[in-house]
Amino acid sequence: MKNGQGHKIVHAITQWGPEATGSTRAAGLMRIGLGVIALIRFGNELAPYAINGLIGLSLSVLLFGFAFTTILGIRARLSVAGLGATIMLLYALGLNGVGLVTWAHHHVYLLGMACLLLSLCDCGKSFSVDRMRALATQGRVRPPAEFGALLGQRLIALQLSALYFWTAVDKSDWAFVSGQRLEQTMTWVHSGRVLEFVLHWPALLALASIIVLVVEYWLAVAILLARWRPAAIAVGLAMHISFYLLLPVNTYSITVIVLYLALLDPAAVHRFIDRMLGYPEVAR
């Protein structure tokens, strides 16, 4: 009996992760989104006009080369893996004081790791030069299916859950719950600006801090549960849009929003795009 239950558990895990397959359109959209975000985040810092020396030139070539091939979907899995490795290299350089201090930030780590995980998906089977080549080879009579491995998409969902949990743990102290940390940040960002009046409402800042803490703990669980996921996505989108509008979070919010594609049913994303393009619906 125990062996039978263990076999069922292992089978369920492998079906959920290593053997997971489905439409690759969501993965293709994530690939394009992450490539664009990488250019926005590092483009000014690694453009030829901003670099010095052989190391800077090498980083520039790697970043721009892999970012553009990732967006275009040329050898997509290899390209997005190379982009992820390059971003993680920038993160490591920042940690060791070789690159910019801003590279040693968990937002950079999130972006780099997401690229590496996405390389475990067949992210080049949709919206890519790879697909154009496959169509040219196989012909349009029987076009190659936009269907493939989705292990990376599952792992990105776990990455988001871990992100919410550990950021909530980091906020679980009196300085945050009392609103002091948020007040310090808001003072730095909004002093002398249109939202400066918020600083005169410390109770509001404390309430906002508590809400963020509770929501992040809840999201860590809710995004993994099918029943709660629609509400979790709506709440998460509202929270990250608020972060983007009120705080200098750089590319963090848009990165998480793009990664929310990993939480959606791949077949539902496929059907939605078919409807947008006016294609007849096909059961998937």
UniProtKB/TrEMBL annotation:
It is a multi-pass membrane protein. The keyword Ligase does not apply. GO terms for cellular component: endomembrane system. It is found in: Endomembrane system. Residues 19-268 form the HTTM-like domain. SMART domains: HTTM. The chain crosses the membrane at residues 49-68, 80-102, 108-127, 147-166, 198-219. Keywords: Membrane, Transmembrane, Transmembrane helix. Pfam families: HTTM. This is HTTM-like domain-containing protein. It comes from Roseinatronobacter bogoriensis subsp. barguzinensis.
